[in-house]
Protein backbone atom coordinates (compact mmCIF):
# COMPACT_ATOMS: atom_id res chain seq x y z
CA UNK A 1 0.00 0.00 0.00
CA UNK A 2 0.91 3.66 -0.13
CA UNK A 3 2.26 3.96 3.41
CA UNK A 4 0.58 7.31 3.89
CA UNK A 5 1.84 8.79 0.63
CA UNK A 6 -0.86 10.30 -1.62
CA UNK A 7 0.45 8.45 -4.67
CA UNK A 8 2.50 5.35 -5.37
CA UNK A 9 4.87 7.45 -7.43
CA UNK A 10 5.82 9.60 -4.45
CA UNK A 11 6.19 6.54 -2.26
CA UNK A 12 8.44 4.96 -4.87
CA UNK A 13 10.57 8.10 -5.19
CA UNK A 14 11.12 8.04 -1.44
CA UNK A 15 11.88 4.32 -1.50
CA UNK A 16 14.95 4.84 -3.65
CA UNK A 17 17.53 5.03 -0.87
CA UNK A 18 16.19 1.72 0.43
CA UNK A 19 16.41 0.13 -3.00
CA UNK A 20 20.02 1.23 -3.33
CA UNK A 21 20.77 -0.16 0.12
CA UNK A 22 19.19 -3.48 -0.85
CA UNK A 23 21.28 -3.69 -4.00
CA UNK A 24 24.47 -2.83 -2.14
CA UNK A 25 23.80 -5.60 0.36
CA UNK A 26 24.53 -8.03 -2.50
CA UNK A 27 27.98 -6.54 -3.07
CA UNK A 28 31.12 -7.64 -1.27
CA UNK A 29 34.86 -7.54 -1.50
CA UNK A 30 36.97 -10.62 -0.98
CA UNK A 31 40.49 -9.30 -0.62
CA UNK A 32 40.46 -6.99 -3.61
CA UNK A 33 38.04 -8.95 -5.70
CA UNK A 34 34.63 -7.40 -6.14
CA UNK A 35 31.72 -9.81 -5.79
CA UNK A 36 28.15 -9.07 -6.75
CA UNK A 37 25.60 -11.76 -6.00
CA UNK A 38 23.84 -11.80 -9.37
CA UNK A 39 27.01 -11.35 -11.34
CA UNK A 40 29.13 -14.11 -9.91
CA UNK A 41 27.48 -16.82 -11.97
CA UNK A 42 27.90 -14.85 -15.17
CA UNK A 43 30.67 -16.50 -17.17
CA UNK A 44 31.29 -13.72 -19.67
CA UNK A 45 34.92 -13.43 -20.87
CA UNK A 46 35.09 -9.70 -20.38
CA UNK A 47 38.59 -9.51 -21.86
CA UNK A 48 37.39 -10.93 -25.19
CA UNK A 49 34.50 -8.53 -25.70
CA UNK A 50 34.95 -5.87 -28.37
CA UNK A 51 31.60 -4.19 -28.32
CA UNK A 52 28.73 -3.72 -25.89
CA UNK A 53 25.34 -3.10 -27.44
CA UNK A 54 22.65 -1.83 -25.06
CA UNK A 55 18.98 -2.05 -26.06
CA UNK A 56 15.93 -0.77 -24.16
CA UNK A 57 12.89 1.54 -24.31
CA UNK A 58 11.78 4.69 -22.54
CA UNK A 59 13.24 5.23 -19.10
CA UNK A 60 15.29 2.04 -19.31
CA UNK A 61 16.83 3.36 -22.51
CA UNK A 62 17.87 6.50 -20.65
CA UNK A 63 19.62 4.35 -18.05
CA UNK A 64 21.46 2.55 -20.84
CA UNK A 65 22.39 5.82 -22.51
CA UNK A 66 23.80 7.11 -19.23
CA UNK A 67 25.78 3.89 -18.80
CA UNK A 68 27.35 4.38 -22.21
CA UNK A 69 29.07 7.55 -20.96
CA UNK A 70 29.97 5.98 -17.65
CA UNK A 71 31.44 2.82 -19.14
CA UNK A 72 33.31 4.53 -21.93
CA UNK A 73 35.30 6.54 -19.42
CA UNK A 74 37.01 3.48 -18.05
CA UNK A 75 36.25 0.34 -20.02
CA UNK A 76 37.90 -0.58 -23.31
CA UNK A 77 34.73 -1.26 -25.28
CA UNK A 78 32.95 0.48 -28.06
CA UNK A 79 29.49 1.00 -26.64
CA UNK A 80 26.33 1.50 -28.60
CA UNK A 81 22.85 2.22 -27.28
CA UNK A 82 19.70 1.80 -29.32
CA UNK A 83 15.96 1.94 -28.77
CA UNK A 84 14.46 -1.54 -29.00
CA UNK A 85 11.79 -0.30 -31.42
CA UNK A 86 14.52 0.90 -33.79
CA UNK A 87 16.22 -2.48 -33.80
CA UNK A 88 13.55 -3.85 -36.15
CA UNK A 89 14.85 -1.57 -38.84
CA UNK A 90 18.56 -2.14 -38.44
CA UNK A 91 20.89 -4.47 -40.16
CA UNK A 92 23.14 -5.78 -37.44
CA UNK A 93 26.77 -5.24 -38.35
CA UNK A 94 28.69 -5.93 -35.20
CA UNK A 95 31.78 -7.97 -34.35
CA UNK A 96 31.25 -11.57 -33.22
CA UNK A 97 32.55 -10.60 -29.79
CA UNK A 98 29.60 -8.31 -29.07
CA UNK A 99 27.75 -8.52 -25.77
CA UNK A 100 24.14 -7.42 -25.86
CA UNK A 101 22.62 -5.89 -22.75
CA UNK A 102 18.88 -5.38 -22.49
CA UNK A 103 17.34 -3.32 -19.70
CA UNK A 104 13.68 -3.59 -18.80
CA UNK A 105 11.71 -2.90 -15.66
CA UNK A 106 8.86 -5.23 -16.63
CA UNK A 107 10.76 -7.75 -18.71
CA UNK A 108 7.68 -7.87 -20.93
CA UNK A 109 8.26 -4.99 -23.33
CA UNK A 110 7.48 -6.41 -26.77
CA UNK A 111 10.25 -4.63 -28.66
CA UNK A 112 12.83 -5.72 -26.12
CA UNK A 113 11.66 -9.34 -26.33
CA UNK A 114 11.83 -9.36 -30.11
CA UNK A 115 15.33 -7.87 -30.11
CA UNK A 116 16.45 -10.40 -27.55
CA UNK A 117 15.17 -13.27 -29.68
CA UNK A 118 16.65 -11.86 -32.87
CA UNK A 119 20.17 -11.42 -31.51
CA UNK A 120 20.11 -14.76 -29.70
CA UNK A 121 19.17 -16.44 -32.95
CA UNK A 122 22.30 -14.93 -34.47
CA UNK A 123 24.35 -16.52 -31.73
CA UNK A 124 25.02 -13.50 -29.51
CA UNK A 125 24.89 -13.66 -25.73
CA UNK A 126 22.46 -11.41 -23.91
CA UNK A 127 22.76 -10.04 -20.40
CA UNK A 128 19.57 -8.52 -19.03
CA UNK A 129 18.75 -6.22 -16.15
CA UNK A 130 15.13 -6.78 -15.20
CA UNK A 131 12.95 -6.09 -12.18
CA UNK A 132 10.88 -9.26 -12.56
CA UNK A 133 12.77 -12.58 -12.43
CA UNK A 134 9.72 -14.45 -13.79
CA UNK A 135 9.41 -12.25 -16.86
CA UNK A 136 10.03 -13.29 -20.45
CA UNK A 137 13.20 -11.19 -20.79
CA UNK A 138 14.65 -12.63 -17.58
CA UNK A 139 13.86 -16.21 -18.59
CA UNK A 140 15.12 -15.99 -22.14
CA UNK A 141 18.37 -14.11 -21.52
CA UNK A 142 21.68 -15.93 -21.13
CA UNK A 143 22.49 -13.92 -18.03
CA UNK A 144 20.18 -11.99 -15.77
CA UNK A 145 20.51 -9.38 -13.05
CA UNK A 146 17.52 -8.88 -10.77
CA UNK A 147 17.05 -5.15 -10.16
CA UNK A 148 15.57 -5.78 -6.72
CA UNK A 149 13.55 -2.56 -6.74
CA UNK A 150 10.39 -4.28 -5.51
CA UNK A 151 7.13 -4.02 -7.43
CA UNK A 152 6.69 -0.60 -8.99
CA UNK A 153 3.04 0.44 -9.22
CA UNK A 154 3.21 4.03 -10.47
CA UNK A 155 3.21 3.97 -14.26
CA UNK A 156 6.12 6.42 -14.32
CA UNK A 157 9.31 4.48 -13.65
CA UNK A 158 11.29 5.94 -10.74
CA UNK A 159 12.88 3.47 -8.35
CA UNK A 160 13.50 0.99 -11.15
CA UNK A 161 15.43 3.71 -13.02
CA UNK A 162 17.56 4.26 -9.92
CA UNK A 163 18.14 0.50 -9.63
CA UNK A 164 19.20 0.38 -13.28
CA UNK A 165 21.66 3.24 -12.84
CA UNK A 166 23.14 1.68 -9.73
CA UNK A 167 23.50 -1.80 -11.21
CA UNK A 168 25.04 -0.46 -14.41
CA UNK A 169 27.49 1.52 -12.28
CA UNK A 170 28.35 -1.51 -10.17
CA UNK A 171 28.72 -3.68 -13.25
CA UNK A 172 31.22 -1.18 -14.60
CA UNK A 173 33.19 -1.41 -11.35
CA UNK A 174 33.03 -5.18 -11.54
CA UNK A 175 34.37 -5.31 -15.09
CA UNK A 176 37.09 -2.76 -14.27
CA UNK A 177 38.12 -4.85 -11.31
CA UNK A 178 38.24 -8.01 -13.46
CA UNK A 179 40.12 -6.47 -16.38
CA UNK A 180 42.63 -4.27 -14.61
CA UNK A 181 42.74 -5.68 -11.08
CA UNK A 182 42.17 -2.18 -9.74
CA UNK A 183 40.79 -1.73 -6.25
CA UNK A 184 37.19 -0.60 -6.07
CA UNK A 185 36.20 1.85 -3.37
CA UNK A 186 33.09 0.25 -1.92
CA UNK A 187 32.87 2.81 0.89
CA UNK A 188 31.95 5.40 -1.67
CA UNK A 189 29.06 3.22 -2.83
CA UNK A 190 28.00 2.31 0.68
CA UNK A 191 27.53 5.97 1.55
CA UNK A 192 25.10 6.44 -1.34
CA UNK A 193 21.83 5.37 0.38
CA UNK A 194 22.39 7.68 3.35
CA UNK A 195 23.33 10.59 1.12
CA UNK A 196 20.19 10.03 -0.95
CA UNK A 197 18.00 9.79 2.12
CA UNK A 198 19.31 13.04 3.57
CA UNK A 199 19.19 14.76 0.25
CA UNK A 200 15.55 13.89 -0.37
CA UNK A 201 14.40 15.27 2.94
CA UNK A 202 16.54 18.41 2.54
CA UNK A 203 15.45 19.22 -0.98
CA UNK A 204 11.79 18.25 -1.26
CA UNK A 205 10.29 21.52 -0.04
CA UNK A 206 12.43 23.58 -2.34
CA UNK A 207 11.50 21.42 -5.32
CA UNK A 208 7.83 21.84 -4.39
CA UNK A 209 8.21 25.63 -4.19
CA UNK A 210 9.91 25.64 -7.57
CA UNK A 211 7.13 23.51 -9.06
CA UNK A 212 4.60 26.06 -7.73
CA UNK A 213 6.33 28.81 -9.67
CA UNK A 214 6.31 27.02 -12.99
CA UNK A 215 3.48 24.49 -13.16
CA UNK A 216 1.31 26.60 -15.43
CA UNK A 217 3.90 26.82 -18.20
CA UNK A 218 3.15 24.93 -21.41
CA UNK A 219 6.64 24.00 -22.60
CA UNK A 220 9.89 23.08 -20.88
CA UNK A 221 13.35 22.51 -22.32
CA UNK A 222 15.72 20.30 -20.34
CA UNK A 223 19.32 21.07 -21.21
CA UNK A 224 22.44 19.13 -20.33
CA UNK A 225 25.69 17.84 -21.77
CA UNK A 226 27.62 14.60 -21.80
CA UNK A 227 26.49 12.01 -19.34
CA UNK A 228 23.90 14.40 -17.92
CA UNK A 229 22.07 14.54 -21.23
CA UNK A 230 20.33 11.14 -20.82
CA UNK A 231 19.18 12.39 -17.43
CA UNK A 232 17.74 15.51 -19.07
CA UNK A 233 15.84 13.19 -21.42
CA UNK A 234 14.53 11.34 -18.39
CA UNK A 235 13.50 14.55 -16.62
CA UNK A 236 11.57 15.65 -19.71
CA UNK A 237 9.93 12.23 -20.11
CA UNK A 238 8.79 12.20 -16.48
CA UNK A 239 7.28 15.66 -16.84
CA UNK A 240 5.42 14.93 -20.06
CA UNK A 241 4.04 11.56 -19.09
CA UNK A 242 2.49 12.55 -15.79
CA UNK A 243 1.76 16.28 -16.20
CA UNK A 244 0.98 16.28 -19.98
CA UNK A 245 3.16 19.35 -20.36
CA UNK A 246 5.31 19.36 -23.45
CA UNK A 247 8.95 18.91 -22.48
CA UNK A 248 12.06 18.10 -24.46
CA UNK A 249 15.51 17.01 -23.45
CA UNK A 250 18.10 18.72 -25.62
CA UNK A 251 21.90 18.38 -25.65
CA UNK A 252 22.80 21.95 -24.70
CA UNK A 253 25.34 22.20 -27.50
CA UNK A 254 22.60 21.61 -30.06
CA UNK A 255 20.60 24.66 -29.01
CA UNK A 256 22.05 26.95 -31.61
CA UNK A 257 21.40 24.42 -34.34
CA UNK A 258 17.69 25.03 -34.04
CA UNK A 259 15.94 24.65 -30.68
CA UNK A 260 17.11 28.05 -29.42
CA UNK A 261 14.36 29.48 -31.63
CA UNK A 262 11.86 28.11 -29.10
CA UNK A 263 13.10 30.27 -26.25
CA UNK A 264 11.00 33.10 -24.88
CA UNK A 265 9.90 34.28 -21.42
CA UNK A 266 7.15 31.64 -21.36
CA UNK A 267 9.50 28.70 -21.96
CA UNK A 268 11.40 27.62 -18.86
CA UNK A 269 14.77 25.97 -19.29
CA UNK A 270 15.73 23.27 -16.82
CA UNK A 271 19.50 22.92 -16.86
CA UNK A 272 21.81 20.36 -15.29
CA UNK A 273 24.98 22.28 -14.48
CA UNK A 274 27.06 20.52 -11.85
CA UNK A 275 30.72 21.39 -11.52
CA UNK A 276 31.92 18.59 -13.75
CA UNK A 277 33.77 18.50 -17.06
CA UNK A 278 30.79 20.00 -18.89
CA UNK A 279 30.36 22.91 -16.49
CA UNK A 280 31.84 25.86 -18.36
CA UNK A 281 30.13 24.97 -21.61
CA UNK A 282 26.83 24.54 -19.76
CA UNK A 283 27.22 28.00 -18.25
CA UNK A 284 27.64 29.43 -21.74
CA UNK A 285 24.50 27.67 -22.90
CA UNK A 286 22.49 28.91 -19.92
CA UNK A 287 23.75 32.45 -20.58
CA UNK A 288 22.44 32.14 -24.13
CA UNK A 289 19.06 31.09 -22.75
CA UNK A 290 19.04 33.99 -20.33
CA UNK A 291 19.77 36.41 -23.16
CA UNK A 292 16.48 35.21 -24.71
CA UNK A 293 14.76 35.92 -21.39
CA UNK A 294 13.85 32.31 -20.73
CA UNK A 295 13.28 31.56 -17.02
CA UNK A 296 15.98 29.17 -15.83
CA UNK A 297 15.85 26.43 -13.23
CA UNK A 298 19.09 24.56 -12.66
CA UNK A 299 20.45 21.71 -10.64
CA UNK A 300 23.99 22.67 -9.72
CA UNK A 301 26.43 22.94 -6.88
CA UNK A 302 25.63 24.55 -3.58
CA UNK A 303 27.10 28.04 -3.24
CA UNK A 304 28.01 28.23 -6.90
CA UNK A 305 27.77 32.02 -7.07
CA UNK A 306 28.13 32.22 -10.81
CA UNK A 307 25.24 29.84 -11.35
CA UNK A 308 23.17 31.44 -8.59
CA UNK A 309 23.45 34.80 -10.29
CA UNK A 310 22.63 33.39 -13.66
CA UNK A 311 19.55 31.31 -12.96
CA UNK A 312 16.16 32.04 -11.42
CA UNK A 313 16.03 28.93 -9.28
CA UNK A 314 19.03 26.88 -8.24
CA UNK A 315 18.31 23.46 -6.78
CA UNK A 316 21.63 22.60 -5.20
CA UNK A 317 23.51 19.37 -4.65
CA UNK A 318 26.00 19.45 -1.76
CA UNK A 319 29.68 19.95 -2.60
CA UNK A 320 30.66 16.32 -2.19
CA UNK A 321 32.24 13.80 -4.58
CA UNK A 322 30.69 14.33 -8.05
CA UNK A 323 30.10 10.58 -8.10
CA UNK A 324 26.91 11.27 -6.14
CA UNK A 325 25.47 14.11 -8.23
CA UNK A 326 23.64 12.13 -10.93
CA UNK A 327 21.77 10.00 -8.41
CA UNK A 328 20.72 13.11 -6.49
CA UNK A 329 19.83 15.00 -9.64
CA UNK A 330 17.56 12.20 -10.83
CA UNK A 331 15.50 12.48 -7.67
CA UNK A 332 15.11 16.23 -8.17
CA UNK A 333 13.85 15.67 -11.71
CA UNK A 334 11.37 13.03 -10.53
CA UNK A 335 10.09 15.18 -7.67
CA UNK A 336 9.73 18.21 -9.89
CA UNK A 337 7.60 16.27 -12.39
CA UNK A 338 5.57 14.80 -9.55
CA UNK A 339 4.79 18.13 -7.87
CA UNK A 340 3.94 19.84 -11.15
CA UNK A 341 1.54 17.01 -12.05
CA UNK A 342 0.01 17.08 -8.59
CA UNK A 343 -0.51 20.84 -8.72
CA UNK A 344 -2.28 20.34 -12.04
CA UNK A 345 -4.50 17.67 -10.47
CA UNK A 346 -3.34 14.91 -12.83
CA UNK A 347 -3.86 11.20 -12.35
CA UNK A 348 -0.13 10.62 -11.67
CA UNK A 349 -0.14 6.88 -10.91
CA UNK A 350 -2.17 6.11 -14.02
CA UNK A 351 -1.60 8.78 -16.62
CA UNK A 352 -3.89 8.80 -19.63
CA UNK A 353 -2.97 6.65 -22.63
CA UNK A 354 -0.15 4.84 -20.81
CA UNK A 355 0.26 1.26 -19.62
CA UNK A 356 2.80 -0.05 -17.15
CA UNK A 357 4.16 -2.54 -19.62
CA UNK A 358 4.06 -2.18 -23.36
CA UNK A 359 3.33 -5.62 -24.76
CA UNK A 360 2.69 -4.63 -28.36
CA UNK A 361 5.29 -3.55 -30.90
C1 LIG B 1 8.49 5.89 -18.30
C2 LIG B 1 8.18 4.50 -18.50
C3 LIG B 1 8.36 3.89 -19.85
C4 LIG B 1 9.15 2.59 -19.70
C5 LIG B 1 9.25 1.87 -21.04
C6 LIG B 1 10.12 0.62 -20.93
O1 LIG B 1 8.28 6.28 -16.98
O2 LIG B 1 7.79 3.83 -17.57
O3 LIG B 1 9.03 4.76 -20.71
O4 LIG B 1 10.42 2.89 -19.20
O5 LIG B 1 7.97 1.52 -21.47
O6 LIG B 1 9.58 -0.30 -20.03
P1 LIG B 1 10.41 -1.48 -19.44
O7 LIG B 1 11.53 -0.91 -18.66
O8 LIG B 1 9.44 -2.26 -18.62
O9 LIG B 1 10.92 -2.29 -20.62
What report would you give on this structure?
The chain has 361 residues and is of the alpha/beta class. It is built from twelve helices and twelve strands. It has helices at residues 8-14, 16-24, 58-74, 84-87, 110-121, 136-140, 159-180, 186-214, 229-243, 279-291, 305-310, 325-343, and strands at residues 27-30, 33-36, 51-56, 78-83, 98-104, 125-130, 143-146, 219-224, 246-251, 269-273, 296-301, 313-317. A five-stranded parallel β-sheet has the order 4-3-5-6-7, sandwiched between helices. Helix 3 (58-74) runs antiparallel to helix 9 (229-243). It starts with 7 loop residues before the first helix and ends in an 18-residue tail after the last helix. It binds fructose -6-phosphate. Fructose -6-phosphate (F6R) binds next to helix 3 and helix 9.
Set out the fold topology.
Layout: H1 8-14, H2 16-24, E1 27-30, E2 33-36, E3 51-56, H3 58-74, E4 78-83, H4 84-87, E5 98-104, H5 110-121, E6 125-130, H6 136-140, E7 143-146, H7 159-180, H8 186-214, E8 219-224, H9 229-243, E9 246-251, E10 269-273, H10 279-291, E11 296-301, H11 305-310, E12 313-317, H12 325-343
Parallel strand pairs: 3-4, 3-5, 5-6, 6-7, 8-9, 8-10, 10-11, 11-12
Antiparallel strand pairs: 1-2
Helix pairs in contact: 2-7, 2-8, 3-7, 3-9, 8-12, 9-12
Mean pLDDT comes to 96
Inertia-based shape: globular
Helix content: 40-55%
Ions and ligands: fructose -6-phosphate
Number of helices: 12
Q: Give the spatial strand order of the biggest sheet.
A: 4-3-5-6-7
Uncertain regions spanning at least 5 consecutive residues? none
**Total strands:** 12
Query: What value does the Rg take, in angstroms?
Result: 20 Å
* End-to-end gap: 32 Å
Taking the sheet with the most strands, its summary is: 5 strands, parallel
Order of helices and strands: HHEEEHEHEHEHEHHEHEEHEHEH
Q: Give the strand content.
A: 15-25%
Structural class: alpha/beta
